[in-house]
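Entry:
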Amino acid sequence: MTTSQTIKVCHLAPADVWGGAEAQLLVLLSVLSKVPDLEVSAVLLNEDRLAHELARMGINTLVIPEASHSFVSLSRRLIRHFAHHPVDVLHTHKWKDNALGAVATAAGSVGRLVRTVHGFVEPLGGLKALKMNAHYALDNVVNRWAVDRILTSGKYSLADSFPQNFRADNYKSRENIFVVKFIAADNLGMGVAMAALHYCQYAPLTPWNGFATLAQTFNSFDPADKRRNAILIGPQRDVLTGALVTVRVSNACPAYTPANALVFTDSIGNIRSATEGEGPRIYKWPADPAHVAQNSGNDFAWFRLGEIYLIKAEAQHVLGQDAPALTVLNTLRARTDPVAPPLAAVSDSVILRERLFELFGEVKRRQDLVRFGKFTNRTDAPSGLVGGKAASADYYVLMPIPQSQISANPMLLQNPGY
């Protein structure tokens, strides 16, 4: 672990082809290399286009050809490298470099191991499928080990209650591991409440009455699950004063009467002509009483201990260890202020639902659905659009490459289906 104020970050990647992950890594490192007090480097397992592009940009890059080394030999080379060039963060991208990164981290010259998951498991068959399944199992073992290091570090603990992780003083929460910092100051605060709240329920501000969640999401919760309380439904009040509020009349917020009360419904009858009160609203990050204009002091947690519990339970389930996975999930539910009754069993669907209940609104859902193979075949209650939301082709997991980029780079091939 380095001790200077400069943060040293190294990316470890296979770089065996030139694809989306490699292009993303090149862009990321080119930007990070310009950040003050941040020293970036890379260790690649193949000498390919990415290695040449990074060298051209002057980014310190070491290539250890995987074709010339066994896994043990690669591990030794990495341990020696990081012993002479310690880093604060080692960022890995695929199963093999994640396993190698775990070995290097265990050796003590790496401060933190961070993993990015790119894409999804390829639909292979035969011996290739067996090999990929073995890689996937190893990756889960490594992830479980890394999770256990966080769980047993003594630095983090579950918040006593679920809301403590999201309110304006959530900087005090020992559950939040890595956050985007906000403060109640002009242009420095969180403004998500403006996107979800009704025009009349955050005086003197005028929110946008924008985002509503799906009826299917709201109705998936057990009514006894306290995490559902972060979704607003039914008669509404000003979020700071508690006074009952109304729908607008002539684009203004009149005095309250039962006749013009603002009531959020659990569904939207027609998305093209919805009324102001249709649709439940996510209010996970409540407005800061000390807000400055729309700027609240709530931090946004990219990673918190609750998700680490979920990651561990998923890894255990994949490894066939359902009994300890169930214990982990129920430990998460049984905070000092329990959020929900204990679960009775574990399955893929149970874990996917539990990630919804715990992490809704925290920008995890799309990747979760992709990972569980549910993104394109998921259907929801009719939304008012023609045909509602129907299952779609699998290729929609990947987005199209803009034609302008293909025209500028003839080496790019459009993703299948577009």
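The chain has a mean pLDDT of 89.
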